[in-house]
């Protein structure tokens, strides 16, 4: 099974900066579909995309890992 990441902090930051997935994708620029695919762990962000998102959302270098590399832990019942 492929490793997945939790983008909850990224989504909250997008909300704080009033960015929808569509608007962020347009400002990057990548397709809205590509952005959605990556946020839903069906694809991976490239280094360039991570850097661009960090610039747009003013994410400090020392916090990049929190936004893009927090492993998604699924609880089993």
Helices and strands, in order, run as HHHHH
Overall pLDDT confidence? 93
Helix content: 40-55%
Rg for CA atoms: 12 Å
Total domains, how many? 1
Number of strands: 0
Low-confidence stretches: none
CATH superfamily: lambda repressor-like DNA-binding domains
Number of helices: 5
CATH architecture: Orthogonal Bundle
How many strands, which pairing sense, and closed or not: the largest β-sheet?
A: none
Described by the principal axes of the CA atoms, the overall outline is: globular
By secondary-structure content and strand pairing, the structural class works out as mainly alpha
Compute the separation of the termini in Å. 19 Å
**The CATH topology, please?**
434 Repressor (Amino-terminal Domain)
- CATH class category: Mainly Alpha
SSE blueprint and pairings:
Layout: H1 8-16, H2 21-27, H3 32-39, H4 47-57, H5 64-68
Helix pairs in contact: 2-3
Tell me what the structure shows:
This protein has 77 residues and is mainly α. It has a single domain (8-68), classed as Orthogonal Bundle (434 Repressor (Amino-terminal Domain)), CATH 1.10.260.40. It has helices at residues 8-16, 21-27, 32-39, 47-57, 64-68. Helix 2 packs across helix 3 (32-39).
């Amino acid at each position: 099974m492929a490793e997945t990441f939790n983008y909850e902090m990224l989504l909250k930051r997008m909300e704080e900066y009033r960015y929808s997935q569509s608007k962020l994708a347009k400002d990057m620029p990548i397709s809205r579909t590509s952005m959605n695919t990556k946020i839903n762990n069906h694809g991976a962000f490239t280094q360039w995309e991570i850097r661009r998102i960090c610039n747009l959302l003013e994410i400090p270098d020392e916090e990049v890992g929190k936004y893009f590399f927090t492993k998604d832990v699924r609880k089993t019942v």
